[in-house]
Design a protein that fits this description.
The protein is mostly helical. It has a single domain, classed as Up-down Bundle (Butyryl-CoA Dehydrogenase, subunit A, domain 3), CATH 1.20.140.160. Helices cover 68% and strands 0% of the residues. The chain has seven helices and no strands. The longest helix is centred in the first third of the chain and has 20 residues. The radius of gyration is 16 Å and the shape is globular. The termini are far apart.
């Protein structure tokens, strides 16, 4: 075994807070976020080791995103956490964070995930593409389309 290989425990320690924050932003509810977080790491444990060494973070985001989309399909809902959206809020006095959260809730799951990964989590497009299993151009397009829809929704 490669001595530089990351153990599952190290992966968990390195990314647990970041992945929980992402799960919370996608689900909007602490209990749902805890379930999504646990599902993500359980799926990662079952699929261990990651397909490519050095790309573990994007691999975890991909698993979390897919789990969130699966949960949404079952529950038909994902609500953005209003408190965490201040960073992505438009600079307009007449648009509240609740308005923005409601608009984000209406986005298709793929656009919502891309938006949260870019504008809330601050990930680069390359990592977003890996997390969403798409090209970097497609990741940019999803974020761009989400922004257009959000601007139209809160106009």
């Amino acid at each position: 075994m490669d001595t530089d290989a990351l153990t599952f425990g190290q992966l968990l320690e390195r990314h647990e807070r970041e992945l929980f924050a992402y799960a919370l932003r996608l689900s909007g509810q602490r209990a749902d976020a805890e379930d999504l977080y646990q599902d993500t790491f359980l799926a990662a444990f079952r699929a261990w080791p990651p397909p490519r060494q050095g790309n573990e973070r994007a691999w975890l985001y991909k698993i979390a995103t897919n789990r969130a989309i699966d949960r949404e399909r079952r529950a038909k809902r994902i609500v953005a956490n209003v408190d965490d959206l201040a960073i992505a809020a438009p600079e307009r006095d007449d648009v509240t964070l609740a308005d923005l959260a409601g608009a984000i809730e209406t986005l298709p799951a793929g656009q919502r995930a891309a938006f949260v990964l870019r504008k809330v989590q601050g990930l680069p497009y390359l990592e977003i593409a890996a997390a969403l299993d798409c090209s970097e151009e497609a990741a940019r397009a999803r974020v761009s389309e989400a922004l257009k829809k959000l601007k139209a929704a809160v106009a």
